[in-house]
Amino acid sequence: MSKRFPICVAVLLALTAAVWFSFHPWRREPQYRGMTVTAWIEEMRVGGSQIEVTTEAFLAMGGQSVPYLIREVKRRPAPFHKWLASVHGKLPDFVRILLPQPEVGDAGRAGAAHALQRLGALAVPGLIGALRSPDADVRLVCVRTLANIEPKYPELVRALIERLKDDSPMVRHSAADGLGRNREPHLEAIMPLVHALADADVSVRSRVAASLGALGAASLPFLNEALKSTNALTREGALVAISRMAPRESQAVDALILQMSDPDPKIRKSAVDLIGDLRGSPLRRPPPTPDQRPAPLIPGATAAQGQSAQAGLIRSLSDPDTLVRRAATIAVMKLGLRSEELARAFVGLLGDRDADNRKFAAMDLGEFAEGRSEVVAALMRALRDGDADVRMLALGSLSRARPMPAEVVRAFVEFLADPEPRARSAAASGLIQAGPAGREAIPRLLEALGTPPTPQVAAPSRPSATAVGQIAVVDVALVPVVAEALGAIGAEPETVVPALVERLRARHINEWPALIKAIGQFGGNAQSAVPDLIDALRQPDAATVAAAVGALGRTATGSDEVVGSLAQALSSPESMVRFGAAEALRGVGPRAVAAVPALTLALEDPERMVRRGAALALVAFNPNAKAEIPNLAEALRGMDEAGGAERWIRSQDGPPPLRPVK
Q1: Model confidence over 516-561: pLDDT tens digits?
Q2: ∠ CA(576), CA(578), CA(579), 5° rounding?
Q3: In terms of Cα–Cα distance, which of 609, 611, 599 is closest to 662?
Q4: CATH fold for the domain made of 558-662
Q5: Rg (CA), the chain
Q6: DSSP letter string, 413-457
Q7: What is the CATH architecture assignment of 492-555?
Q8: Do the domains spanning 492-555 and 558-662 agree at the CATH topology level?
């Protein structure tokens, strides 16, 4: 008995081996260029060859390489290998020689996925089988690979549909993406995508909506039915999907307009938002011309749809929901709609209980302020709003009123003394737009500069903020705006420039750059300020010196003292001062010949813009410019693409046209 037992075991093992080999015949691994498929995978994993080289090998081996590639997609590094890779750099040298660092990256998986995608139909069965893996990362790689395979075979589409219910949001996202990139839409994929509009993950819902929109008219009937769903997420997602088809699909525009009257405020807001998005960003929208004022239509939509959309937006401006009203104001701004009905709706919105809605109304009414007295009256009332932003935006919109009424000018004058700096700036900017009609604001503008009104100009009835003969603390940021307003109104430079100089002499150093820039705005009419500007060149503050250089250039005086001071500024350690001095000398013209040596030295300046400024100044007034052609041409290089500046220097004596430096 004891002798028979080993014999029986041996026979049983032999029979088992025979049966196993009968069902699993020994197969040699496929080879390409003398390397097995496993060797090519190892080569791909360690990065020994470019991915296209290894992919070429797998394509040559065809379907025989698919099981090995699927195995590589499923491969996960052993825990020991992961640990060894994390500590390998800290090990002693002899240990690192004995234990090479294991490869635990995703290069092998990524390369295998790329090869499987290129294999196309041959890889589809293996990828579908790998979708049953419990590893979410494996399923994600397989879904993304299937999504990139074209054409979409029926079994591939069904596999992607099944993954719309995967536990992993990333897998569901990729499955929806693949179904939306189908060149020939499969109707069986539409309803599962519609159901996925209610997915718990917002990124999945967004991708599903995009895919349904990409499928086009085929999905529109299903989406119209989804709009009747009791699930708010489904309805909102259907709206987004429909908006992806508009305006190329006329029925999609009609569906969006219809949903602006939905009982659910969230749906109404989404519909309004999507209607506004059909035109694009308002920052890229050109300003409307007079012939566009009567209700511009949605691009690609019919005239009737444009009118219906406008009527829906007007209704939305008085919607019971605050967010819907706000969305409507933004949509009107994006679409550039203009009509009497909209103007009246925005006037009503100025009384909204929500401050943000009043802000949007005050801003949008600027588009309607021209020639509409009722709009101007409403904006004047908004100047008494309790919210500072509303008041400031109303001031900005009033500056667009044409012709500008006297009461608007008086309002700007009053707001020059407002405690809010932005309101003061908006009022001064409004007076710039008023032009000569704002002459009554001159005394208050002078007060804003910290200077009392002159006896020749009567002060307004409101008590002055500054006593005569006393210089008040001035809003530095407001100084340039006030000076520009005085110039636009037509104030006499003989009055304004001395006021600015008086403030400058008070030696509030932090105010000097703004005051000097304001003086420079009067150009040749600021000759009386030249000595003070030259004195400012000696200050240690770089911002003050740069402002003084620019102001001297604008006054265009050619006195020896000015030219000498500007020439000396060409050696300033600040590049912006050197560049400004070169530009100022160019503005002085031929009277600055004494600065030629300093400008010639500036052609070697380390800063490109300074070299260019010096070259332009030289060719503007130096009769011997042609003697400096090599340096000048080098300094001017790049002003245009064809070397026009150099050609001009060789042929003429006048300055070349200024072009932006690239």
Answers
A1: 887 887 888 888 888 888 888 888 888 888 888 888 888 766 788 8
A2: 65
A3: 609
A4: Leucine-rich Repeat Variant (1.25.10)
A5: 38
A6: HHHTT-SSHHHHHHHHHHHHHHGGGGGGGHHHHHHHTT-PPPTTS
A7: Alpha Horseshoe (1.25)
A8: yes
